[in-house]
Specification:
Blueprint (H helix, E strand, L loop, with lengths): L10 H21 L11 H32 L14 H15 L9 H25 L1 H9 L10 H5 L6 E4 L2 E6 L2 E7 L4 E4 L6 H7 L9 E5 L5 H4 L9 E5 L3 H4 L19 E4 L4 E4 L2 E7 L8 E5 L3 E5 L2 E4 L2 E4 L8 H12 L6 E4 L4 E2 L2 H4 L1 H12 L1
Parallel strand pairs: 4-5, 5-6, 6-7, 11-14
Antiparallel strand pairs: 1-2, 2-3, 3-4, 8-9, 9-10, 10-11, 12-13, 14-15
Helix pairs in contact: 1-4, 2-3, 3-4, 4-5, 10-12
């Protein structure tokens, strides 16, 4: 975090004081045992509750540690992922989940006072970090602090921590986003021709959002599906004159051959004609050139599209979090390891000015977003 503060922040002092509190409470517990033993609650119940708390806290702590490393390296403010749940998830997860979970194993009232002391301590110490972040990021940090708790995670914000598409409107020249609930579809228009990437959900909301654009839906002549999930295909009826394109390897998802999510989910059949694409196929619409790039993993036939060699539409092949590319959320993927290989291939693309994802926004800094994956791609080529 620059010259005034290291990546560790106030973490070392928080850890030292927390350990001192624990040692003091443990001494008190041992000296006056069994006076402080929690009565009337079976030990197995305390252990189960403790394990649940640990199971909640450890993933938050791990994810936050990775995110703060990336934010520190990029010199940017982390506000997405676990940082959408609380501003200091490393301290919060330790204070409210991991440490209480461990201390329940001791079955001691006095030891459970340690997390209370840690919460007070953390709130005092993080003021230094917050003063630094206010000075560094100004209004952006003030706005962030105004909507997100300092320490205790707002789990009811989990939806917004995972899904944050851009609002309907122009993203850059020729590129327009349409937001319907948690997903974006996109339209690329050059004044004479228009093509769409995905079709979002069906329903009136899609038609209302399309009215906000200067491009009438009937002007879209070609529509490219990144994959066959209903949040990408549901709104096809909004583009009745468009020729639909789909990966050849994705046809298994709409003909009933292949299911996902442990076999519980099958993509809907398309109620209109479509054309199939192979990796590398190019469709030209006037001056608009759409190149298909096979990116399997989320589904077997997931496909990304590069328009005019400078705009990449990735669908659910990847997620953007705090400006960096990650695999899409593992529970929704057919094969996350395969998806990692697809992302490494995308990282080798040159000349990309804009990356658009379906659920996690866009970035104009492709090099920074893909830095980690470009390194992985180079490593795979040298093997």
């Amino acid at each position: 975090m620059g010259k005034q503060m290291t990546i560790w922040g106030v973490g070392p002092r928080f850890t030292v004081f927390s350990v001192l509190c624990f040692v003091l409470a443990l001494v008190v517990h041992c000296v006056w045992h069994p006076f402080f033993v929690i009565p009337g609650v079976p030990y197995v119940v305390l252990v189960v509750i403790g394990l649940i708390l640990i199971a909640i806290g450890v993933p938050i702590w791990g994810a936050a540690s990775k995110e703060v490393d990336r934010a520190f390296e990029a010199d940017e403010l982390a506000t997405q992922g676990v940082y959408a749940l609380c501003r200091h998830p490393i301290y919060g997860s330790a204070t409210f989940f991991v440490i209480p979970g461990i201390l329940l194993f001791f079955r001691s009232w006095v030891l459970l006072a340690v997390p209370v002391a840690m919460a007070v301590l953390a709130r005092v110490l993080v003021r230094r970090e917050e003063a630094y972040l206010r000075a560094k990021f100004g209004q952006a940090y003030l706005a962030y602090a105004g909507r997100v708790n300092a320490l205790f995670p707002r789990f009811w914000r989990l939806y917004h921590a995972m899904w944050y598409p851009v609002e309907t409107g122009q993203v850059m020249e020729h590129v327009y986003a349409v937001r319907v609930r948690d997903v974006n579809m996109f339209i690329y228009a050059d004044g004479e021709h228009a093509v769409a990437i995905d079709a979002a959900y069906a329903g009136d909301a899609l038609f209302e959002e399309l009215k906000r654009l200067p491009i009438p839906p009937e002007s879209v002549t070609h529509l490219f599906l990144t994959h066959a999930d209903v949040d990408h295909t549901g709104g096809l009826d909004a583009f009745p004159g468009a020729q639909v394109y789909l990966s050849k390897d994705e046809e298994q998802m709409i003909d009933g051959t292949t299911a996902r999510l442990l076999g519980f989910y099958r993509s809907p059949r398309l109620a209109r004609a479509y054309s199939l694409l192979d990796d590398g196929d190019v469709v030209t619409v006037g001056t608009i050139r759409v190149r298909a790039v096979a990116t399997p993993g989320h589904t077997p036939g997931a496909m990304s599209f590069v328009v005019n060699d400078c705009v990449l539409f990735s669908g659910d092949t990847l997620a953007l979090r705090n400006g960096c590319v990650h695999p899409f959320y593992r529970p929704f993927n057919k094969d996350t390891a395969m998806q990692g290989g697809s992302i490494r291939n995308l990282a080798s693309l040159q000349g990309v000015d804009l990356l658009c994802t379906a659920h996690t926004g866009c970035t104009m800094d492709y090099a920074r977003a893909m830095k980690h994956w470009q390194e992985k791609h180079r490593e795979s080529e040298t093997r």
